[in-house]
Each structure stands twice: as structure tokens, then as C-alpha cells.
Amino acid sequence: MRKLHAVLLLGAACVVSACTTTSDGFNSSNSSPDAALESYTSLGLQYLRAGNTASAKGPLLRALEIDDGYAPAFNALALVFQAEDDLSIAESYFRKAVAADPQSAMIHNNFGAFLFAQQRFDEACQELARATEDPFYQARAQAFENMGRCYRKIGRLDVAEHAFNRALTLSRQRPIAMVELADILLEKGDQAGAAVLFDQFREYVDSKQIDHFPLSLWVGVRVARYEKQSGRAATYALLLKNMFPESAEYQLYKESAQ
């Protein structure tokens, strides 16, 4: 939860079926093609989560030898090459994954997060919006949160506000969405609504589930000012200065204090 960048959801992970292992970690001789596909892909993702990207590629390529249009393997390879910072290769595999399974919310979310990280916000917003369309997607709240952050980047506050509200409707455990939505409400002059959301966010900080970040501290300063809590506002301002002196939020604070 402490990672503030768009989260790459490894939704293609599958349970590894009971098989004897070989040098590549799996023997498909006694398994159906579908089971082998899932197991090889799951094994590749396990290597990726362990940070072993070199070993992750072999099982994923084996999956594609069985089915050269298997979208989860394309998606997993895209994540592997993204982790290795081979961005052009990663993008090619994301596009193969989308082409192979255009209805996959998980793939659209991962590709959207990839594009967001490259600051290709217009493209990212389209992919993330597609990820929110599946009402059965388990990470739909995360997708709405990502979508809201993306639309803020291109100045579509109306769409962003809707996305953050949807994220919080689907899951109240979205502290990033709370802060982002509170910031939008402050911009709209709804200080009371922003204060409610920020108080909910503070509970996550107090329970050490998330740390403050530049936007949360800047929101905290303005909420504290609204509540006439000058000491609290000063505390947030000092944290912002000491922890994030180069942030855009600190620049906004300095301008507001003049």
C-alpha cells in the first residue's frame, strides 16, 4: 500500500498444478494443455515476484509454445520486460496481450499502468477506463483509482472525481483515492467534504498502513487551516518541507504562505 505509483496487478497468477518438476520447474507430460499453460504462466509470475526476471522468461515462452496466442503469458512477459526496463519490448507484449484478449480488465489495467509510468497519459486513461468496464474484475476499485489519477493528469477533474467516488464505493480501503478526492473537493470549495475524507485517510496513517506523501500533506495543511488548527497545519507544512522539498505541493504551500 505504500507504493504510490500506479500498481501493476499480477492478475494472471494461477495455482500451480501438482506436477513433477524438472530444471525449468514444471513437467507438462502428464497434464492437459490448459493446465500446462496456467502452470507455466504461474511459474513465470512467481519468478517475477521473486525478482528473478531471467528465470521468468523460460516458463512463459514454454506457455507460448503450447498456445502462441495465450494472453496471460503475453501479459506476464510484458511485466517481466517492464521490470527489466526494456520498455519497447514490454509494450509490444502488452499490445499482443490486448489483441489476444481485448476483454481482459487485468491486461488493460496493467497496460494502462505501464503507459501512465511513461507519462503517456491520454493513452493510459483509455486503457484504464477499459479496465473499469468489467463489473466482475476483482481489482476494479484499484482500476478506478488508477483511472482517476490518470484523468487528473490531463485536467479532466469531472471524470477523475467520478472515478475516485466509484473506487471508494467499491472499496472504502482506498486511502490514495481519499486524498485525491479530498484535493479535488478543496479545489471546488467543499472544505467540509475534504475534511471528512482526510480524517479517514489519517486513520490509515495512524495505523501505519500508509505513509504521508506530498499531496496528502498539502491536503492536510489546507484542511487544518479550514478547521482552524494552526498547529496541525504547521506540522504538516514542516513535514512537507523536510520530506519533499522539491515537490510541486511544497511549491504550492510556499505560494499560499506568502
UniProtKB/TrEMBL annotation:
InterPro entries attached to this UniProt entry: O-mannosyl-transferase_TMTC, Pilus_4_PilW, TPR-like_helical_dom_sf, TPR_rpt
Entry annotated with the keyword Signal: yes
Top-level taxon of the source organism: Bacteria
Annotated SMART domains: TPR (SM00028)
Residue windows of the TPR repeats: 71-104, 141-174
Keywords: Repeat, Signal, TPR repeat
Signal peptide interval: 1-18
PANTHER family: PROTEIN O-MANNOSYL-TRANSFERASE TMTC4, PTHR44227
Name of protein: Type IV pilus biogenesis/stability protein PilW
Organism of provenance: Marinobacterium zhoushanense
Lineage: Bacteria, Pseudomonadati, Pseudomonadota, Gammaproteobacteria, Oceanospirillales
